[in-house]
Amino acid sequence: MNKPVSVAIDGPSGAGKSTIARILAKELGYIYVDTGALYRTVGYAVLQKEIDPQDAVAVESLLPHITVSMGYANGEQRVFLNGEDVSAYIRTPEVSMAASTTSAMPPVRQFLFRLQQDTARQNSVIMDGRDIGTVVLPFASVKIFLTASAEDRAQRRFLELREKGMDVTYEDVLADMKERDYNDSHRAAAPLKPAEDAVLVDTSGNTLEQSVEILKAIILNALKG
Ligand code: DC
User: Fold this and answer.
1) FRET label pair with 52: which of 24, 121, 164, 200, CA 20 to 30 Å apart?
2) What tens digit of pLDDT does each residue of 2-30 get?
């Protein structure tokens, strides 16, 4: 069997990672792994147990009592908390913030590390997150760091949330995004930063199709070399 290929796509939220990675995974025949969904599942578990996401001791003591796993239905990734599919509950602004807070805690990162690495060991993957190229898959075949201006990213996320029927304003989404960017890039454990050997791509002003083509060219070129 050929060694599985792994493509790491990191970057701040709203840069288009998941949409682009999902399309590319389909085109290239790889599995798409959304690691943010795993951190969101932990955030959701914390809120469900009415634990304060800032309370690192309480969050850590919850971990041995939960299981987080992934599966695929119709080509879409689903996430499971204690065997229950919670994919529909993890996209709210509350869960986003709880995920951002709890993902800064080393025990939470440790808790999800194995699942991510094992998935990439067994399958060719396009994995998106914040520390995939730097920590989870340092030997990834291709590493891409995808970004865009905060305003561009907030606008995309705002439209996505409105489409899902959520009652949010652009200003709130932008403020949340800036707060999460700050948290994600200033934490001590696996902060958001490009791997030294990552290709940087700024998607500001691009259409989705343009960004997909740019990334596809980078991936195919890297795999050829
Ligand atoms: O990509 P996302 O917005 O769904 O991620 C939710 C949160 O999880 C985000 O604030 C940062 C965190 N995260 C992380 O710390 N490491 C990852 N590999 C993926 C997400």
Assistant:
1) 164
2) 789 999 999 998 898 999 999 999 999 99
